[in-house]
Amino acid sequence: RVWFLKQTPGIDPESSVGANTEVWSREGVIYRITPRRNDEVNDTWMADSGRVLYKQVRADNRLLVPAIDGAATAAEMALKAAADLLRSGPAAIVGSGRSTVEEQFLTKKIAAALKAPAALVSRTGPGDRILVSADRNPNVRGALVTGLISALPAAQLTGLAADIDAGRVRTVLSVGEDLAAAGLTPAQLARVNVIYLGTHRNATSEAAKVVIPTLTGFEKAGTLVNQQFRIQKFARAVPGPQGVADDLVTLAALATALGGALVPAELNALWQAIAA
């Protein structure tokens, strides 16, 4: 029954419109998603496609266990292996327009510690000019504001592909992006050490030396910057799978291991650093 469900404020991650939503759950299970009124963004409406996104939480291809070379391992060992690989040679960072502002800020810290280039992958599709925009990433503007990127992203990682072919990159850290879908060939993925932080299995997780599972947008809190450059918060609706750390914890641990200085992983402390 609807009156038994808990309502949690969310943001539709399908595009840069950033329609406000309510995520309805009970005892850690999501049952539906409905619009949340915001007269400045989406009025009282949302795209129908956003109503079923909660099904990704329990998808069969969900990543649940850290792995090194395909073998399950402890989270601490996976983090150490990832940090060692990143230190071992020229690295490149592929961030995500689906990451929160906080996650992009920490991804930028990792890139700065390594003096490594950072890229995003553009994601576009037909828009209705009301509830769904042609920009299908919810937070490209957050990546611009945090300085993770300085120009709008392309749909294909052609620059990274050229660097791999030329031997200028030996390790690639992907934060939630399928590098194969972004244009890297199986041969190029095999030529580098891939570290994949993500929620679901794909060609990149299969090719990765290190895999670290992360949370879906329903299992964490954060902020996104929409097409109006309006910063909007969303809250955690349900707990994540047992043993899967919050993305902020994973990224902060990597940034600390690579940079030496302690990087906060908690939202309030992190926002003090972002504000500064």
Label the overall shape: globular
Low-confidence stretches: none
Query: Percentage of helical residues?
Result: 25-40%
The major sheet is characterized as: 7 strands, mixed
Describe what is shown at a glance.
The chain is of the alpha/beta class and 276 residues long. It is 28% helix and 19% strand.
What would your notes on this structure say?
With 276 residues, the protein is of the alpha/beta class. The protein has eight helices and twelve strands. It has helices at residues 75-88, 101-114, 140-146, 158-165, 186-191, 203-207, 247-259, 267-275; strands at 6-11, 20-26, 29-35, 67-68, 71-72, 91-94, 118-119, 171-175, 193-198, 210-213, 222-225, 231-234. The strands form three sheets. Strands 5-4-10-9-8-6-7 form a seven-stranded mixed beta sheet. It has a three-stranded antiparallel beta sheet with strand order 1-2-3, with no helix packed on it. α1 (75-88) packs across α7 (247-259) and α2 (101-114) packs parallel to α7. The longest helix has 14 residues, at 75-88. The N and C termini lie far apart (46 Å).
